[in-house]
Q: What sequence folds into this?
């Protein structure tokens, strides 16, 4: 027996008012200052509805009304602006070696930044404590209280499923506290939106980096370990357990063999060259106790050291295989190299692109991130702002005026 058709819910005045408020707030979030007439044109709502909704949003703290200014003809139009200081969001990058926290207003402008080393951390709970201390420092620097924070985005170097749970299948992933989000919420009171760091890097690049207006994108974090964030038609790909973009498959790729990133390979190969007495290289003068940093390898190569240049050529060829594999699997328009080595990695692009043409007939465009080591924290801010914009009408603001 066929089921009777379901009757859609009746649109009540309260529901309509909420929908209309969402429309107006969405427009003002993206705009700077708009008149009532501009909002009417942008939303298709009547003048009376726009003004009534704006009055509601002003009373809630989301919108401020500006001085209408002078006009020689008729009544001046009301002018409205999104209150970017109605609250704040945090962008937290919980790296294996360092934690960085950005405090941003609701337009994503940074008002404070703090960072702390995680060197010597041995347990997940110790790492969470460092995150907490860094948050406290950043908020104090910004002059912002916990009550003014609406949400925090947080990135970890481990897969995170759609429910915000960290996978612990890998030894490296177990370095992160599986109860981190809950613990931070208990300490501070605001929601923590946990996400994989490469996914957040992808949001950051798409929002404010090299990938603006690019919806088919791979961001390759290439520091100590390769990790990638994938975007298809403007949507992040997670996979069933949050593992989309994990790079363990590189162990099966000829000429790559592991997930070691650009910084690690440069450091290890540079240190090995210094240890070989038969090798003549300026890296030996730069080394500390026989250990060379990735930055020193890049600098020596720029200064003409042949050994350092050879190391970078090998890294470029290896990275080209990684990019080509990602290109074949996901067919992105653009691959962005990001992370702490991004600025130096620009030196790899000529050799990388030359090698890439040998591995695929449809190579993606390759760029180097301009966001530097802030790439994950910027994406975490965007993640938090997405949450605020989606739930704005249900949030209680800790700041009621600009």
A:
């Amino acid at each position: 027996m066929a089921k009777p058709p379901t009757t859609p819910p009746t649109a009540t005045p309260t529901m309509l008012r909420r929908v209309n408020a969402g429309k107006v707030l969405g427009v003002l979030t993206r705009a700077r200052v708009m008149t009532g007439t501009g909002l009417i044109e942008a939303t298709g709502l009547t003048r009376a509805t726009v003004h009534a909704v704006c009055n509601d949003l002003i009373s809630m703290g989301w919108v401020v009304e500006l001085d209408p200014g002078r006009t020689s003809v008729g009544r001046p139009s009301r002018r409205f602006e999104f209150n970017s200081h109605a609250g704040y969001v945090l962008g937290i990058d919980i790296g294996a070696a360092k934690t960085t926290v950005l405090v941003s207003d609701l337009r994503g402008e940074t008002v404070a930044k703090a960072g702390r080393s995680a060197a010597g951390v041995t347990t997940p709970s110790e790492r969470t404590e460092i995150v907490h201390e860094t948050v406290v420092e950043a908020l104090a620097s910004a002059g912002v209280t916990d009550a003014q924070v609406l949400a925090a985005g947080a990135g970890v170097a481990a897969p995170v499923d759609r429910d915000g749970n960290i996978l612990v299948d890998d030894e490296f992933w177990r370095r992160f506290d599986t109860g981190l989000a809950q613990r931070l919420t208990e300490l501070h009171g605001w929601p923590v939106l946990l996400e994989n760091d490469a996914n957040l890097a992808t949001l950051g690049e798409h929002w404010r980096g090299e990938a603006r207006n690019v919806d088919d994108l791979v961001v390759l974090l290439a520091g100590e370990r390769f990790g990638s964030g994938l975007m298809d038609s403007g949507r992040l790909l997670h996979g069933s357990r949050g593992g989309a973009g994990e790079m363990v498959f590189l162990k099966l790729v000829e000429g790559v063999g592991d997930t070691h990133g650009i910084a690690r390979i440069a450091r290890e190969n540079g240190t090995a060259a210094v240890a070989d007495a038969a090798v003549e290289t300026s890296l030996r003068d730069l080394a500390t106790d026989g250990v060379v940093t990735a930055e020193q390898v890049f600098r020596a190569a720029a200064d003409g050291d042949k050994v350092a240049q050879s190391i970078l050529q090998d890294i470029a060829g290896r990275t080209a295989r990684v990019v080509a594999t990602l290109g074949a699997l996901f067919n992105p328009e653009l691959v962005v190299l990001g992370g702490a080595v991004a600025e130096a990695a620009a030196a790899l692009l000529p050799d990388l692109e030359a090698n890439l043409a040998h591995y695929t007939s449809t190579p993606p465009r390759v760029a180097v991130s301009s966001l530097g080591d802030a790439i994950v924290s910027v994406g975490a801010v965007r993640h938090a702002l997405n949450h605020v914009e989606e739930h704005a009408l249900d949030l209680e603001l800790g700041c009621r005026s600009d």
